[in-house]
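Example 3.2
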Amino acid sequence: MKRVLITGSEGFIGKSLCDQLSQHKENYEVFTLSRSPGQVRHICADITVDNLVPEIRDINPEIIVHLAGNVSVPFSIKYPLEDFNVNARGTLAVLLASEYTDCKNFIFVTSGGAIYDSKAHSPLTEFSPVNPISPYGLSKYIAEGYVRVLSEARKSEWSSLALSNAYGSVKIQKQGVIYRFWEDISNGINPTIFGAEVSRDFIHIDDVVDALIKVIENPVNSRLNISSN
């Protein structure tokens, strides 16, 4: 049985991953970490301010799936320091705490849309030019750099999944552009779509969770774009 720590466990992706892993209790012993209260085997902590070492060391996870972070581009533009603290500095704090454990597989989730050059040719690949145009994209790219550099220095495994826009049941997610479209249509309002020349890729949460489980079992030591094309 593998000990898995999931940060950001109370978020949309975190809850979905926990639900899936709970169906395989013979394979995974799951621990969670979030600023919000959780269920059993849960650490209630803020990765930007709390000392994570004691409790993560006590869990001694073999695998860490790091999902905690800011996911809002508008928030990052309005509050760039707070965005940096949670996405970049917070990721570094989790990485440093993992040094006191048997963690040999660190999984990070970044943004497939926000880190790449908006003028790059589609479809984007892992070799497309990186050129973030928002503090959010920049902080996620910096965080990925910490994951890569420190994992390689320790000779441990890592993966970074660059997700397109994840969606699921609007009754569960309650955020994001698809939720806003649904809410407008449900209220008889024509949804507003910004950017006539802009296209987005969307991927269902079940496919995101499937990708996460694949790199839990088989880390790739690189960034992988996860999208539906």
